[in-house]
Structures are given as C-alpha cells and as structure tokens.
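Notebook B, p. 112. Complex prediction, attempt 2.
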Amino acid sequence: MSAVTSGPARRRLEWKQPWLYPLVGVVIILIVTIIVSGRSPSANIEAALQQGAIVVMLGLGQMFLITAGNGNVDLSMPGVITLAGFAGIDVAARSHSIFLGVLAAIGVGLATGAVNVALIQGIGIPPIVATLASGLVLDSIVLTVGASSAVTPKGLASFSIGRTLDVPNVAWVALGLTIVAAVVLHKTIFGRTVVAIGQNRKAAVRSGLKVRSAMVACYLISGACAAVAGLLLSSMTGASMDIGTPFLLVSIAVVVLGGSRIRGGRSNVIGIWVGSVLLQVLLTLFYSLHLSSAYQYIAEGVIVVVVLAGAADREGFTQ
Amino acid sequence: MPERHSTVRDRVALTRGPAPGGALLASLGRVDRGPLLAVGAAVALYTWLSVLEPDALSYNGLTLTLASTMPLMFVALSQMILISLGDLDLGNGYSVGLANVVSAIIMPQHPWLGGAALAAIVAAYAGMGALVQWRALPAIIVTLGASFVWLGLSLIVAPSPGGSSPAWLSDAANWNPPGIPLPLLVALVVAIAGSLVVVRTRAGVMLRATGSNPSAARAYGVSVPLVRVLGYTAAGVSIVIGGLLLTGLTQSGDANASGDFNLLSIAAVILGGAEFRGGRTPVIGAVCGALALTLVSPVLSALNVPSNYQTGAVGVVLVLVIAGRRLLQR
C-alpha cells in the first residue's frame, strides 16, 4: 500500500478496521438468534456480557505478549485464573479484607509472570514450554490447596455479579482495563517498544529500546490480567478446580479475531471486545438452538483457524 | 517426481544421511548424544523403582507399570515429527482422545465406519499441515484451535465415558509375548524401526533437512510443502495408533481422559533430545522419554508423594531438562 498523505483518504483507511468483519459476524449471528428463538436474546445478554468481560481481560493480557511477537504467548493463564480465584477468595475470607484478597490474587498473577519471564529470558526456554510448564505447576498447587476452599466473601460475590448503571460491574472493570491498556500501548514508550519488538526484535534492540524490561512488563501484565479475571470469575461462580481450563483458547482467539497480527507488531485493542462479543453471541445462538457444549467447542476451534487463515491472506505474511 | 531432481536429492541423502554402505550399527550410532539423557532417566527411574518396589522387576510388574507407555510412545512419536518440522502440536491430547472414543464407541458396532473416522483424523492432520504450510500460520494456534474441534467431536461421539474395546484390539494390547513384556517389546520395535526410517530413508532425511533449514532444503530440491503434509500425515497415523492402544488398554472411551498426553508428549520429545527449532528426530530419545515419564508417577507413588504433585513434577522436569541443556551449550 502506498503512503497515504491526504486527509480524507487517511480517514477512509482508518474506517477499515480489521474487526469490521467480526462485527458483521456479530450482527448476523444476532439476527439468526432472534429468528431461531423468536424473541430478543436479552435474557442471555447479561450472562454473555459478564463472561465476555472476563474474556476481554484475558485477551488484553495475551495481546501484549502476542504483539511482542517472537512466539510470546501465555499458556499458564488457565492455571493463574484458577489459583488466583482460590487464593483471593481464601485470603479475603480469612482476613475479612477484600483488599488483601485482591492483593493475594494479583500476587499469584505477578509471581507467575515473573517466573515465566525468568524462564524465558534468563534461561532461554521457549515461551510456549515455559508457560505451559509453569501452568502445570500451578495445576498441582491448585489440586493441593483447592481442597480447602473457603466460602466467597459477600462483598466479592456481590461486586462480581452486581451492576452499576445497568451494566455488570465486571464489564466496567474490563472497560477500565481496556482504556488503560490502549493508552499504555499507544501512548507510552513501553507500549511502542512492545510493538517495535513484534515488528523486528533485532532492530528494537539495536535502536536502544529496553527490550528485556519491556518483556518482563508484558509477562507481569499478562499474569495480573489473568489474576483479576480469575478472581472475578471465581467470585461469580465460586472457585473450582478447572474453572480456568476453557479460557486458554478463547484468550488467544479474541486477540486474533480482533485483528491483532498473530506474529506480532500490530495490535487492536477495540478488536478484543469485538472478538469477545462475537464468541459470546455465538454461544447465545448455540444456547437457543439447544446444542451441547460440544458443538460450541467445535465452532470456537473452527472460527479461530478460519479467521487465522483468512487474516494470513489479508496480510500476506508469508515470510 | 521429476527426473532432474533425483541427483540433487541423492546429494542431500549423501551429505545428510549415513555414510554409504555404513553398517546398521553405525547408522544408529549417528544419532547424536541427545537421547542419552532420556535413556539415562528411564534407566535411573526404573532402578529406583525396583529398589522401592521389588515387584516391579517381574514380568507382570513391568507389563503393568509400563502399559501406559505404549499409547504415550506413539503420541510422542507424532509430536516428535511436528517438533522436528519446527512446529508443535498443542492438541494431541484431545486428538488421541478422539481416536480413543471412536475406537471404543463406534468401532465395536460399526468397524468400517470407525475405520473411516480414524482415517478422517489422519486426513485432518494432513489438512493442518497443508494449512500451516500454505497459509504460513503458527502451528501452535492451528493445533490449539483443532484441539477444541477434537474435544467437541469426542464429546458428540461419547458424551460420557463408556464403550468397549473391539476384541482384536484388547487381545493385541494385552498380549503377553514370551520372554519380554509387551511394553518393552513395543518400545524396542518402535525405537529401531523409527530410527531406521528417520536415519536411513530419503523421507527421514528430507524431514530433518526441512526442519533444520527449510530454504536450504528447498534449494536442494526438497519439496517443503510435501514434506510438511506427509509429516503431519505420519503424525496423524501415530496419533490413531496411540488412540487404538489406549482403547485396548482401558477397554473404554473417554473424551477427557487423555488431555495429559499433550504435555507428556512434548516433555518426552524434549527429554529425548529434540530442539524446538526443528531439524532433530530423536526417535530413541522420544521412546525412552516416554518410558521415563511413565515411570515418574509410580516412583513418586512409591515415595508416598501425593498424586497432586505429579503433573507439576513433569512441568519442573521439563524446565530443568531444557535449562540444563541451555547451560551446557553456553
């Protein structure tokens, strides 16, 4: 594409956001859902928004890593979600302080992120294996501490399922995190460094950017996002052993669906919301069709692969 | 295949493969020292186990302790092929689960339908290879996406665990060969046959060439797309064999039971001496890695370590192995 200089042309280009197609998909699925169920799907929208907000938080964490390219991804997220839920609720219940509970949960996320990045940068273990392995260790910890689960403190439970201005609180949290993420990614040196690493790590190093500390921050952010999402999720439904498992694919899927480049170097924050909403309305449709979760899994898998294959075509990133 | 390529292909075989006329032993000896760690780990764990539990030394003890190695070996072999191509299969826990439920639920009643479904799994693997190759997609995301499809299909075939094993399959998986326990016999056969294929055949040479340097391989006249698709196909076949063995051993199908195979297969291959960059095909290492990892949990059980820690232990072992190797390379 040649350099765009004129104002109107540039504005036109900005309208062509990569999440436009997923958005069209959302509208089509909504229409089909209304036709199939014969009524507006508003009954499920609240649940969809809550679940979708959780996925957005996870997607934001993955986005920083995927944007940084070079195979960075966080496969320990399910473990963090689950353990942060247990730890946060347990600490909050014992200390009668929600603040301490939140701290404990985020601590789990930050600690995991720190271990991940230490394994990756310190020892040179590929991110996939490092995060997979740390996720397994978390699984073992969950199996051990999970047996003694406390009752969710009232404050946490009511906040997580509550609503403010008719919008679920978790959606507000997700919105807040999204705005912070967008500002950090687009307006700070750290954010631009992350994008630069994804475009060309060597060039980023040569130009004197703080590549290593930026990667540390990315993994800490990813851990913290998963921890916050995990605590909220567990507060909604009660902490359970495999609460995080279904979220690994979707956390990556929404980033890809939203138009971030899977090989890094370009990200789209708004796209994460579109991707998350797309997956949620799809679930609503399947719910209206009375299809089991098996079909939902298949649809999610197929969508990810198809969108990815389509995106590859659009960008032509054959090396 | 075009005739004019044959000479360059032969040259690849000459430079990358064994010395012409080299003895069988020499060609097996060419496999680098990578697998030593896995072999050592398997032997050490086995020795440790036989001290803790003398019964494990007997024919029956070995057969019982190592039974679950058989499916894992084939899943690891499948993972090894993808890793040697520089890819990674994050979905094989559930693809082996699909092969498991297909052979336990569909096969007993409709052998042909079941066979066709298993063939479809192999075809799907070939399709993933084609997708990764021609769309230049990251294999981890494709296989992760596929894992959800496998799981969904498995749950449709078997909403709850059940079914039974076809008689021929149970007979095969529970056969007691004279003198040597079946898992060890299978390990031996797979290690030798696999090594021969990888080291001595043109296909094996092309696999390693493609994995270590695709553009160099292309320059030598290797068809990289063909190698990748065939590699994925072979990986699919190996997955199906693993699923069949799982059915024969457990006598039932369970969509969710085999998720652990994913990490175990990666760990076995890495323990066996493979590199994530690709280009290495340590068959013996992968087989011994599978044996070693199977022995971890009986050893931990004999030491009264709660089973909760066993998944984590595998993760720690995986990290330690890679870390150790990195430190040695420095």
